[in-house]
Each structure stands twice: as C-alpha cells, then as structure tokens.
Amino acid sequence: MVPASLSRSHSLKFRMWYIETRPSIFEEENIYSDNSSLLPKEVSKMSKNKIQALLINHLNKYGNIELILPDGVVLEIGVNQEDKNGDIIIADDYCWVIASRKDKSAVLDSYNLGLRFNDDSRTIVFEDKYIDQNGDQVRRLDVV
Q: Domain count of the chain?
C-alpha cells in the first residue's frame, strides 16, 4: 500500500518500483527450476498440490485440457466420455490421456493402451517379453 503522504507522482514511482522489485510467483516457488532438490520440500509439495488441484478443478468443470509442453509434445487429459445416448458427459470414474509429438501418439484410458504412428517403411516395431524384478511378466513394445 502506498503511504498517504506521498504525492501522486511519488505514488506512481513507488508502485512502479514495487512492481519491478517484488519477486514474481515463479521466483518465489521456483516452478521452473531444473533442480527440484534446491526447493524446500514444503514449497515443492505445495506447488504440486496447487497445480494438481487447479488441474482437477478444470477437468471437473470442462471435461478436458490440452497442455503444450517443450519439444512439441502435446498432452491431452480428459475425464469426459460418451454415454449410452451418444452425449459427452464428465465421468467420475473415467480418465484418458493422449501424449503426442508430430505423427506419434500414445493413448491411455481406463480400458485401453494404444499407439498411433504413421505407417512408414523405415519404422521398426519391436516387441519383447521379460520378467521384471518382482517376478511379473511384462510385455514391451517399442516403435522406432
């Protein structure tokens, strides 16, 4: 707040100084930091909780969201689906995710896992089966 004793021009200068010198929310929470170990655990957890709460609120209100990430990756998240009448509804027990980059997509929902990519003669599809550390059988599919 600007003190009442400041003149109008001093008041404007004070506000401009305050805006220029105050830390931004990005600096306070370091949400763009490459090294999250530099963040206090409470601030890091608070930022993640805020982002998650905002995301869930948006999904519950609008049904889906599209996020544009670095390197041309597009992440789409949704909680909407078709009901038996063909109408799009927001569902409490359903979620889908599509991660895309150029002509490749990975699709995951409550029922399916899928890959989409252009059919190209240079594309190699590699499938493998192995047993992981817990003794579970795992199938792996790579598209190169």
A: 1
